[in-house]
Design brief:
heterodimer; A: alpha/beta; four-stranded parallel beta sheet; 12 helices; about 15% strand; B: mainly alpha; 20 helices; 2 strands; transmembrane (chain B); iron (chain B)
Amino acid sequence: MAEQTAKRPVSVPLMADLAARGESPEILFWVGCAGAFDDRYKRVTRAFVRILEHVGVSYAVLGMEESCTGDPAKRAGNEFLFQMQAMTNIATLNGYGIKKVVTACPHCFNTIKNEYPALGGEFEVIHHSTFLQQLINEGKVTAKGGESFKGRRITFHDSCYLGRANNIYEAPREVLEVLDADLLEMKRCKTNGLCCGAGGAQMWKDAEPGKKEVNIERTEEALATLDGDADVLLNLQGVESTAPVLPAGSNRGGSVIAVACPFCMTMMADGVKNKERESDVQVFDLAELIASAEGLNA
Amino acid sequence: MHFSFQNLLFLLVAVAGFGLFAWQARKIRANILVGRDRDMSGHVNERLWKTLLVAFGQQKMFKRLTPAFLHLIVYVGFIVINVEVIEIMVDGLFGTHRFLQFLGPLYSALTGTNELLGALVVLAVVAFWWRRNASVVRRFTGPELRAWPKLDANIILYVEVVLMVALFTMNAADLKLHQLEGKDLPGAFPVSSLLTGLFPDNLTALAVLERVGWWAHIVGILLFLNYLPSSKHFHIIMAFPNVFYSRLVPQGQFSNVDSITHEVKAMMDPSYAVPAPATNPDGSALAPTPFGAKDVDDLAWTNLLSAYSCTECGRCTSVCPANLTGKLLSPRKIIMDTRDRVEEKYNSPLIFHPSLYGAEAKHNPQEQLDKENHTLLRGYVTPEELWACTTCNACVEACPVNINPLESIIEMRRFLVLEESAAPNSLNVMFSNIENNGAPWAFSPSDRFNWADDLFVTEKTPVTA
């Protein structure tokens, strides 16, 4: 049967509008500050919304009513500011009777899931890696019909606030498995994963004096994993390649460092840039990979 | 049974050994209890299960196989050989000889296992010594491993060898004595039977050697017991309560400060009634406690318990992203500093108290002069160390006895921010951005929904001809 491709404009539903109509969505998509303001990570937010639209789940966002969860303030020791933020957000969420929150940011996820309950905010909180895994398991997402990742190398960088902080290691890996790519594990992965260097409010300050930046250490590990041994490296440079590697500079070729956190995204992308490997290694969020494999970005 | 002067002497030695240990243990208990109260009741089954897995079962040791295997030998040796200590105690008090021999074949199994483990312990200790002193294991270096911690680590290894030598001297001499007298010695001695050739054929000399081995073994154990409170080796006891009282919540969940919760609630809702502050039993007001931690008594008692459970293995520091990239932060140092400071400020239960230790612990001579500032924060741990932490929980995950250095780091950050407004300037900018814009960056809140502009989704629809 022939198919036709059409671009459908999306008007992202606002919680306030739904409430005014007396409707309540199945999930509230918590966008987070990076998802709303960081130019690179806005693309992840948009990719995730495309997936939500594609599977037809009923969702809404808070829009301008959303505010920082307080995570960076809390990790930096500013408990007062954290609790101000937390209680304001809890009042907003409870005001709309929200039951289920989905977010792409592990820091928002951890804070709302673990630290809001003691302050009066009890929600079912799901990270987008788990949510995508569920969509795949339910057959709503097949990762077919779009970009093929077959034969390409992908390594997943564990976010501390998803992994060690909340024991979510398998969901992002199961999401990546659907891509039919070559998944490679870094030596330091899962419980032993190395931080990207941005957690604990490091994102907003210069690092203390040292020998190296943490993100460089981690990027070097990711690149070494993707490059593999000398033979593998040759493959990546296009000699006797078993993988369909496209010419340098093409944004459809090369290997991928997959992330599931906006701060990891910034740190790993900066690392790849620092190592001058942007031509053959890209950093993508899970949602972007799935949206493009599903053909939603075309 | 030959009750004699020797038994009386043993009674005195045992009472002195255990009494001295009890006296030291009381002081350490008092040190731990200077920490802030934290309710750790409940979840007993979950805690026992965790203790069984992590402490008894050595679960987290097996993240690194070679040291885990070596450690397992010494650990199982310690437990099994302690059964023999029970026998030594009974023999010593009542003048019996090899009191447990009534166990028959089980006694042979016990003594045989003991001997094999004893030999393996000697081999493991040699390997440990080599790893620590001759090979380059990065986590056995570092500025916090000053003279005393290094000496301490080696003393433990030497004592373990001495104890094993005493055990084999006792067994081999006893075995040869029985052989020469044409009698059977109950038990199995697979290692000592190989050593009898080294021993004299003189019955008196053998009897003396057997006694020397016996006394050296038990006196050595009692001395070692009393060395523990001065040493990182105290972990062989403290690991168990520390794992039992370790956190059960997800590692990402940080504590909420309750006093701040009341303040914030009162700010947001003027009708909110802040509960009356706790008072002393006589009704007088409690001394106000600061936000966060400046000194050891501002930490929770569980953090101080942890300081006594640390065996300074450095697994935390070896996985710390800040430390790996050359920053000052070392989670192990924070834990070691906590123990040093609590013993400086409160009880020093040390019998073996090397004087150089106290002098070395004071890192910064400038601040040593300032008694006010000579606290855990600044006197031992510098803000530079604290600000290097990414709160990634790698140290927490790595610790084989579930110590949580991150809790102490966050408590000290809270003191710096809430009591001293001493955050790095860039973080103060982040705080004011959150306050003013609801985001850590300086973006206008009115732009928060701009990401949704001009959004399309590509859809495939079947075309019917």
